[in-house]
Task: inverse folding
C-alpha cells in the first residue's frame, strides 16, 4: 500500500458538504493551536508568579520578614552566604523568620513594582532609588524613629549612606549594606610598555594620564581608554566629573532642593567651565581613545577585554576583585613591577595644564582633586509599611546586615569585595582579610579623599534624581559619544533636559 | 451579517405566533442563566482571570495615561499632558519611526525565512523531518534573553565569530556590528528574525502538510512544472496562514523587548531606541508610569492599525475560495 | 485513445518496517476504448496500479506501455493521461472554468477562444454550465465530482483514470453518476481505467473487471465471467452481494457408488457428470453457492436438502435476506419477498447442482462450476443488479 495519503475518508454525508479548501485550513489551525496555548499558559504562569511573594507575616508567635534583595543574586558565593546568614539571623532573633527572595539588579525594580501595586510588598527590600518614589507615595514609613533608637546611628553611616538615606531632612531608607566606588583602572603591562614606572605618581593628573594613553594609542593595538558609555554605565563620568573640583563640591546641582541651581551650562555660574569641561572631556576621550562601541559599552565587558590586553584603561574600576578573578583565574592585580593585569588607581585630578593639553579651553588653569562616584542610592534598603512588629523585625534584619561581623566581614571582604555601609566596619574588613590591591586602594581612596568621593544625585534632594542622572545627563552624553550630536552642544542639551525635568517633576 | 440573516429563520411576528400556538414564553436572560448555570460556573474562573489579568490592567493603563502617576503611586489627573509630551518628544518620534522599520523588516524577514524553512522541511522524509524541524525551529523556543546573549557574542567585535569571519572573507577590518553606521539596525532586525522565524515556519509547515497531495498530482498530470505547482497549488493555500502570521508577528514584534534590550539597549546613545525600550526606560529608569503607559498605547495603536489592515485583507482573501 | 499494457509490473514500497510489495507481477492488456474496472479490497494494489500508469509512482519492475510505447520513464505530463481523484483535487482558489481550463492552458497550444469553447462543451456534457464562474468551495459534492470529471474530459486525453471517484457521494447520487460516467464513456470511447472497492460499481460499469488482492491479479473477465466462473474463492467471495456461501465438504461415494458432498451436518448428492470433471484424487473441497441460488423449499428432494435454523430475516423490499444457521455455519439466502420464515424456525434448504461451485480446499482455486442455464441466468441477474 502507498504510505497514508490525504484521502478524505469521511462517509458520503460528510463529503457531500465538504469544501475543497477547508481541509487544509483546519489542519494547520489544529496544528498551531497547541503551540499557541502553550504560550498563553506560559504567560499566565508569569503573571501568577508576579502576584505571589512578599507579605509581612504577622502570625501570633513568629514574625516573617520577606526580604527582596538584588545583592544576594550578584554571584553564587554571596548568594549562599546570604542564605546561611539568614539562618544565623533567625538563630539570633527568636520568633523571626526571613523569607529571602532575590532578583537581579536588572529585574528588581519591576519585581518590586508589581508586588507593591498588587498590595503585597515585601517587608524589607533593596529598593534602590526607586524607594524614594514609594516614600513619596506613602508606601514606606519614616525611618527616623528606627535610626534614632539605635545606638551609634546615624553617625556610623558612611557619608554616602547619610546623604542617600536622607531626603530633605527625613530618613526614607535604612541605608545601603555596602558601597562600591568608581576609580581609574589600568592594565600595568600596557602602561609600563609606554614607559610608565610609577603609576601613582605619573597617572595622578589628567595631563599625565593623557600623555600615557596617547602613547598607548600610538604604540599599541589596544584601546587606550574605553568609556563605559552606555547610559546606565556612565557612572565612570560621574566619578571623574568631580576631579575638576575640590572639597566635594557637586558638579551639577546645588542649593535649595526645591529650586536648585543647575551648574551645567550655566553662563552665570563661576563653576560652569569645570562642569562643562568634564562633560566635553568625556565625549572627547571616548572619541579619541575609545572603541566604536564605547557608546554602548557596559562595564561587565571590561574585565575580559582588559585581561586579554584589548583595553588599557577605564574609569569604572570598583573594589570588587571577584569580577576580575571570574574573567581570569590567576589575574595579577596590582602594578607587579609593571607586569600586572589590572590595577586600581584614584581617578586622575585635573591639573592647570590639562585644559590646554587636551584642547578643552574651559579647563585651562583649573586645579581639582582626586574623586569618584560612590554607589549608594542604588543599594538603599527600605522597610515597607506593614505592621509595627514586622517593621521592627525588618529593622533588626537591617542592622544585622549592616553591623553583624559574621555577615559583614565575609560578605564584603571575601565574596563580593565592597565598602561596608557603616564606617566602623571598614577597618575590620581591611584588618581581617588580605585584600587585593584594587580593593585596598578603593577603600583608601574613599578614606583619603573624603567628600570628593560622593554619591552622585544623593545630595541634590530633588525628586526626579534618577531621571536627571540616568537620562538627562548620561543618555545625553551617551548620544554625544554615539555621534548623535556634537561635543560643543552637549552641556547645553544636558542643561535643557535637567531644567525641563525639574520644572515638571520637582514639585 | 449575511450568515446571520440566512440562519435567523423567522421574523418577529411569526416568532410570536409560534410561541402563542405552543404556549411558550420568550426566554429572558435570567431564564437562560438558570438553564445554563453549570456552563456559566465553568467559564467564571476564566472570566475572572481574564478580567483580573487582562481587561483590568488595560483599562487601568488607559486611565493612567491621563495622570502623572509615578512608581508606586496613583498620581493626579493631568489631561492630555502625557500625550503632548509624547508627540513633541524627539526621542519618541525617532523611536516610533525606527520601530515601524524594525517591526516590518523583522516581520517580513521572519515570514520569508519561515516559508523557506517550511518548504525545506516538506521535502524531507518523515522521521528525519521531526528532528530537522526541531533543530530549525529551536531559536523560537530559546529565551529571548538567551538569544540576545548568543548574538551579542556572535557579533562581538573583540571575541565574536562574525567579525573574525568578515576579516577572513573580505580581508578588511569588520565594522562593529552593534555600533557603527547602519549595522546596529541590521543586526537587530536579523537577530530578531532569527529568533522568531520558527513561528512562521511552524504555521507554514502545518499549512503545507495540509495541502492535499492530489492537488499537486492533478497539477502535475495537467502539465504543471515544479515551479508552476508551487505557484498554483502551494501559494494560494498559504494566503490565510500568511495573514495570520503577519497579524500575530506584527503585534509580537512591536512588543519585542528582551532581545533588542540585551543587544543594544537602544544604543549606541539612543540610535536604536525602540518604543518598547523607551517604554521600559520611562517606567523603570525615569519612574514615570503615566508616560510609559502612554507610549505603550502608541505601541498598541501600531499593532491595531496593522491588524485592522490585515483583517481587511483577509476579508478580500475569503473571496478566493467562495 | 490508446491501448494500455501492463507487462509484469511490480511495485515495492520501502517503508521503515521494510519493503512492502504493493503490486506483484501484474499482466494486463487493455485494448483501445475499453472500460476496465480494477476492483479489490483496500490495500490490494489497485490504486497503486493506477498511479503507476499516471506516472505518480515509479515502477519497480516490469513495463507499462501506451500504444506499444514504453512509458515507464515519462513524466506525468508527457503521458497524455487525465485522472479524476477521489477527493476531486479541485483548485479551491480557481473558478470552475479556470479549473477546467488549467490543463489545456498548460499543455496545449490552443488559443483562449478554443479552450473556452472546449470547456463549455465539456461543461454542457456534465450539466454544469451554470457553475462555471463559481469556486469549488461553494459547490456540493456531486457538483464538485462533475467538475472534476469535466476537467478530465476537456483535455481529450488518451486514457481516463478514475480513482474511486464516487466514494464521497451518497448512495443515490453514486448510482446516478455511475450511469452518467458510463454514458460519457460510450460517447467519447476513450480507454478508461476505473478503480473502486465497490464490486457493484465494477459489475455495472465495466467492460471487463480485473480483481486484485494483495497486489496480485486474481482474475480478469467480463462481469458475467467473474460472476459465474470465479477463478478462486477470493473472487467468488468478493463478487456478488450478499456474498457467496461457503461450506467445507468431502466428496464421498456411498455403497452404490453414487457421489455426494458431505459437509458438517448435511449431505448433498451430486451427479456423475459433475464429479467426472474433478481430479479423481481430490476429495476435499469448498462448496460455494450464491444466496440468490438457495431456495427454502420443504419439498426438496431428500438427497439435496439441508436442514437449517433461521437466525435473522432482513426485509429489503424487493427481496428478503434470510440468515440461517447450518450446524454452526452461517448461510445467507436471498428469497422473494413473499417467503418470510419465522426466526428460530427450522427450514429445509436446497439448490440446484448447476448453481454450485467447487473449489480445491488447499489451493482455493475453482475446481468445477455447475454450468447449465448459466447464460440464461446471467442475463437475468445483471438486469436485476442494474435495477437495484
Result:
Amino acid at each position: 500500500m502507498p504510505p497514508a495519503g490525504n484521502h478524505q475518508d469521511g462517509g458520503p454525508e460528510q463529503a457531500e458538504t465538504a469544501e475543497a479548501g477547508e481541509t487544509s485550513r483546519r489542519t494547520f489551525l489544529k496544528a498551531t493551536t497547541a503551540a499557541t496555548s502553550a504560550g498563553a499558559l506560559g504567560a499566565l504562569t508569569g503573571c501568577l508568579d508576579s502576584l505571589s511573594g512578599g507579605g509581612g507575616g504577622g502570625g501570633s508567635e513568629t514574625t516573617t520578614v520577606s526580604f527582596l534583595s538584588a545583592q544576594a543574586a550578584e554571584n553564587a558565593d554571596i548568594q549562599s552566604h546570604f542564605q546561611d546568614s539568614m539562618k544565623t539571623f533567625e538563630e539570633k532573633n527568636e520568633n523571626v523568620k526571613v523569607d529571602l527572595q532575590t532578583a537581579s539588579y536588572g529585574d528588581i525594580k519591576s519585581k518590586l513594582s508589581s508586588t507593591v501595586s498588587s498590595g503585597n510588598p515585601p517587608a524589607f527590600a533593596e529598593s534602590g532609588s526607586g524607594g524614594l518614589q514609594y516614600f513619596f507615595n506613602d508606601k514606606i514609613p519614616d525611618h527616623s524613629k528606627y535610626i534614632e533608637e539605635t545606638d551609634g546611628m546615624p553617625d556610623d553611616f558612611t557619608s554616602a549612606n547619610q546623604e542617600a538615606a536622607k531626603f530633605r531632612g527625613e530618613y526614607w531608607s535604612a541605608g545601603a549594606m555596602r558601597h562600591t566606588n568608581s576609580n581609574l583602572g589600568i592594565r600595568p603591562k600596557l602602561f609600563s610598555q609606554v614607559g610608565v614606572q610609577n603609576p601613582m605618581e605619573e597617572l595622578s593628573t589628567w595631563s599625565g594620564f593623557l600623555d600615557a594613553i596617547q602613547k598607548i594609542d600610538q604604540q599599541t593595538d589596544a584601546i587606550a581608554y574605553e568609556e563605559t558609555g552606555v547610559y546606565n554605565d556612565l557612572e565612570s563620568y560621574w566619578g571623574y566629573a568631580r576631579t575638576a573640583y575640590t572639597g566635594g563640591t557637586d558638579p551639577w546641582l546645588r542649593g535649595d532642593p526645591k529650586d536648585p541651581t543647575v551648574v551645567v551650562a550655566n553662563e552665570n555660574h563661576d563653576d560652569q567651565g569645570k562642569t562643562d569641561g568634564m562633560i566635553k572631556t568625556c565625549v572627547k576621550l571616548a572619541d579619541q581613545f575609545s572603541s566604536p562601541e564605547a557608546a554602548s559599552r557596559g562595564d561587565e565587558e571590561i574585565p575580559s577585554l582588559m585581561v586579554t590586553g584589548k583595553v588599557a584603561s577605564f574609569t569604572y574600576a570598583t573594589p570588587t576583585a571577584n569580577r576580575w578573578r571570574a574573567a581570569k583565574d590567576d589575574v595579577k592585580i596590582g602594578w607587579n613591577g609593571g607586569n600586572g593585569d589590572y590595577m586600581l588607581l584614584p581617578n586622575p585630578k585635573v591639573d592647570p595644564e590639562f585644559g590646554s593639553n587636551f584642547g578643552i579651553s574651559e579647563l585651562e588653569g583649573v586645579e581639582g582633586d582626586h574623586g569618584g562616584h560612590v554607589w549608594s542610592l542604588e543599594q538603599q534598603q527600605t522597610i515597607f509599611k506593614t505592621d509595627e512588629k514586622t517593621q521592627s523585625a525588618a529593622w533588626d534584619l537591617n542592622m544585622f546586615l549592616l553591623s553583624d561581623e559574621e555577615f559583614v566581614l565575609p560578605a564584603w571582604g571575601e565574596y563580593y569585595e565592597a565598602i561596608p555601609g557603616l564606617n566602623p566596619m571598614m577597618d575590620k574588613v581591611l584588618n581581617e582579610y588580605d585584600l587585593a590591591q584594587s580593593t585596598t586602594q578603593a577603600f583608601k581612596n574613599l578614606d583619603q579623599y573624603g567628600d570628593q568621593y560622593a554619591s552622585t544625585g544623593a545630595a541634590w534632594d530633588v525628586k526626579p534624581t534618577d531621571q536627571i542622572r540616568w537620562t538627562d545627563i548620561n543618555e545625553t552624553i551617551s548620544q554625544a559619544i554615539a555621534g548623535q550630536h556634537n561635543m560643543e552642544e552637549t552641556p547645553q542639551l544636558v542643561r535643557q533636559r535637567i531644567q525641563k525635568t525639574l520644572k515638571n517633576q520637582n514639585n | 451579517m449575511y450568515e446571520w440573516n440566512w440562519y435567523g429563520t423567522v421574523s418577529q411576528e411569526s416568532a410570536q405566533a409560534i410561541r402563542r400556538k405552543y404556549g411558550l414564553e420568550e426566554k429572558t436572560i435570567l431564564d437562560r442563566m438558570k438553564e445554563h448555570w453549570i456552563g456559566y460556573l465553568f467559564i467564571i474562573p476564566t472570566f475572572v482571570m481574564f478580567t483580573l489579568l487582562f481587561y483590568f490592567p488595560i483599562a487601568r493603563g488607559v486611565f493612567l495615561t491621563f495622570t502623572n502617576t509615578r512608581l508606586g503611586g496613583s498620581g493626579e489627573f493631568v489631561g492630555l499632558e502625557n500625550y503632548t509630551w509624547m508627540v513633541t518628544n524627539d526621542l519618541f518620534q525617532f523611536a516610533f519611526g525606527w520601530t515601524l522599520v524594525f517591526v516590518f523588516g523583522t516581520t517580513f524577514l521572519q515570514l520569508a525565512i519561515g516559508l523557506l524553512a517550511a518548504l525545506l522541511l516538506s521535502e524531507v522524509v518523515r522521521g528525519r523531518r521531526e528532528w530537522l524541524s526541531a533543530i530549525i525551529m529551536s531559536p523560537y523556543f530559546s529565551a529571548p534573553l538567551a538569544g540576545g546573549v548568543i548574538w551579542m557574542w556572535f557579533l562581538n567585535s573583540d571575541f565574536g565569530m562574525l567579525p573574525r569571519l568578515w576579516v577572513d572573507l573580505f580581508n578588511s577590518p569588520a565594522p562593529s556590528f552593534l555600533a557603527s553606521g547602519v549595522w546596529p539596525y541590521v543586526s537587530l532586525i536579523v537577530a530578531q528574525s532569527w529568533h522568531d522565524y520558527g513561528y512562521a515556519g511552524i504555521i507554514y509547515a502545518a499549512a503545507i502538510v495540509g495541502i492535499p497531495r492530489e492537488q499537486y498530482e492533478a497539477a502535475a498530470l495537467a502539465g504543471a512544472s515544479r515551479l508552476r505547482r508551487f505557484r498554483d497549488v502551494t501559494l494560494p493555500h498559504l494566503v490565510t496562514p500568511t495573514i495570520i502570521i503577519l497579524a500575530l508577528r506584527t503585534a509580537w514584534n512591536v512588543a519585542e523587548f528582551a532581545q533588542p534590550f540585551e543587544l543594544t539597549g537602544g544604543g549606541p546613545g539612543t540610535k536604536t531606541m525602540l518604543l518598547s525600550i523607551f517604554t521600559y526606560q520611562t517606567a523603570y529608569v525615569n519612574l514615570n508610569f503615566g508616560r510609559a503607559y502612554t507610549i505603550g498605547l502608541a505601541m498598541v495603536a501600531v499593532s491595531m492599525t496593522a491588524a485592522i489592515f490585515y483583517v481587511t485583507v483577509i476579508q478580500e482573501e475569503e473571496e478566493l475560495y467562495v | 485513445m490508446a491501448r494500455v499494457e501492463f507487462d509484469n509490473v511490480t511495485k515495492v514500497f520501502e517503508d521503515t518496517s521494510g519493503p512492502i510489495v504493493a503490486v506483484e507481477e501484474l499482466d494486463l492488456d487493455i485494448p483501445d476504448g475499453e472500460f476496465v474496472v480494477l476492483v479489490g479490497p483496500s490495500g490490494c494494489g489497485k490504486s497503486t496500479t493506477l498511479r503507476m500508469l499516471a506516472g505518480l509512482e515509479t515502477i519497480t519492475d516490469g513495463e507499462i506501455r501506451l500504444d506499444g510505447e514504453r512509458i515507464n520513464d515519462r513524466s506525468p505530463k508527457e503521458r497524455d493521461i487525465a485522472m479524476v481523484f477521489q477527493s476531486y483535487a479541485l483548485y479551491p482558489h480557481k473558478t470552475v472554468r479556470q479549473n477546467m481550463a488549467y490543463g489545456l492552458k498548460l499543455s496545449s497550444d490552443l488559443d483562449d477562444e478554443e479552450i473556452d469553447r472546449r470547456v463549455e462543451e465539456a461543461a454542457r456534457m456534465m450539466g454544469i454550465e451554470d457553475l462555471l464562474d463559481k469556486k469549488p468551495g461553494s459547490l456540493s459534492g456531486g457538483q464538485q465530482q462533475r467538475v472534476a470529471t469535466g476537467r478530465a474530459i476537456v483535455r481529450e486525453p488518451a486514457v481516463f483514470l478514475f480513482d474511486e471517484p464516487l466514494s464521497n457521494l451518497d448512495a443515490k447520487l453514486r448510482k446516478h453518476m455511475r450511469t452518467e460516467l458510463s454514458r460519457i464513456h460510450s460517447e467519447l470511447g476513450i480507454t478508461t481505467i476505473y478503480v473502486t472497492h465497490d464490486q457493484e460499481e465494477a459489475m455495472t460499469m465495466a467492460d471487463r473487471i480485473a480483481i486484485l488482492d494483495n497486489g496480485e491479479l486474481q482474475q480478469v473477465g467480463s462481469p458475467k465471467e467473474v460472476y459465474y466462473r470465479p477463478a478462486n474463492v477470493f473472487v467468488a467471495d468478493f463478487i456478488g452481494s450478499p456474498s457467496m456461501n461457503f461450506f467445507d465438504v468431502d466428496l464421498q461415494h456411498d455403497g452404490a457408488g453414487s457421489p455426494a458432498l458431505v459437509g458438517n451436518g448435511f449431505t448433498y448428492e451430486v451427479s456423475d457428470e459433475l464429479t467426472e470433471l474433478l481430479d479423481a484424487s481430490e476429495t476435499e473441497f469448498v462448496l460455494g453457492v450464491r444466496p440468490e441460488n438457495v431456495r427454502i423449499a420443504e419439498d426438496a428432494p431428500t438427497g439435496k436438502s439441508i436442514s437449517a435454523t433461521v437466525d435473522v430475516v432482513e426485509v429489503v423490499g424487493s427481496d428478503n435476506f434470510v440468515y440461517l444457521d447450518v450446524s454452526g455455519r452461517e448461510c445467507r439466502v436471498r428469497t422473494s419477498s413473499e417467503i418470510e420464515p419465522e426466526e428460530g424456525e427450522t427450514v429445509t434448504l436446497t439448490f440446484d447442482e448447476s448453481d454450485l461451485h467447487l473449489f480445491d480446499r488447499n489451493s482455493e482455486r475453482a475446481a468445477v462450476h455447475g454450468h447449465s442455464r448459466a447464460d440464461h441466468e446471467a442475463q437475468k441477474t445483471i438486469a436485476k443488479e442494474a435495477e437495484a
Remarks:
- The two ends of chain B are 16 Å apart (CA to CA).
